[in-house]
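Possible regression after last week's pipeline update?

I re-ran a chain I had predicted before the update to compare outputs. Posting the input and the new output here so someone can diff against the archived version. Not blocking, just want to make sure nothing changed silently.
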Amino acid sequence: MASLLVPAPYSLPEHYDGWQLSWKFLVFRPAILRVQACLLLALLVYVVLSLYGKAINIRKADKFYSSVLPLLSRQFSKPASGLISDGPSDFFVFSTGRRAISSLHTVLALRPRHDLLQIIWQYLWSAYDLRYEPFDALTFDFTLDNDAAAATPDFIWAVVRKSELAIIRDQRWDLTFTRTADHPGLDSALSVMSEFADVTETLVKLSPSSTSTPLFTLISSAPEKCPSASALATRSKRVILTFNLPEGGVSHISPLLEGTFALVDLLATGKVTFRPETRAKIKKVRDGVEKAVKEEEEKEKREEVLEDRRSAKRKAEEARIAKLSAAEQKKALERERKRALKKSQGKLVRKV
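New output (post-update):
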């Protein structure tokens, strides 16, 4: 096996008729370095494609930033501190300084055009899994300020393209509260994810209409990932829109974004309400989830305490045995072996 893994030593041919360069005792013969030349060429091609893909992503990000900045400037006193890069394919803009909105994170997650292997993998996986469709994702993540969050009732509601349903439900913990259904007032390619029908009817009437349809629209009072009990009690409110990055800038999605700002302002007024029985059901669900999370945390803490006690007891016993003579240590280890054997036999009898 070792002989197969280790290459044979290279033997220089005695007769060489190809082109060569020589200087004093140095000789360069390109014909015997064909493999190395191919590897070097492949590396250069990879580097060139990587730089080209990175340049494409930067050009797309700059074009998007120049088109979205006027909209952010109209809405925020501090619209942006510049386009911030987080790697060759991820960019974001942080905006703040507006009534009812604590902050707006505008996130641009472009395809990894700088990495040829990832691009090839995306194409292969999309051919295997027809639900997978790589795209340049544009996300507007609104976080409501404390006053607006207090005035907004607890609920989770989303409108999702049916092609993205399975992926989004797997990615977000808060959407496990919801049920999926179609709605006659929406396009047939869209599905509603809502906790109760009353929430859907209220939000469909208030949602801004536009010719451009986001991949994903979400209003949520729960975190994206399952949190601790203390974090769950804070219940920050967020409005999230995700688009396939438009090629012509944000001009044709601007009406939808303007409508989203108006929706946030309406939520902050406290005029968005549901029937008393709907509010009671939502509260009951939230209380049940918070109780379950607390119980799970307490269970984990108890298990950690028990494990610490077992570990301390085991270390104390090992220290005690280490002080004994060799014969006494042998007897103690034999007793411990018999005790462990007896326990395992007892468990086997109980299972039978």
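Follow-up from reviewer: compared with the archived run. The chain has ten helices and eleven strands. Marking as no regression found.
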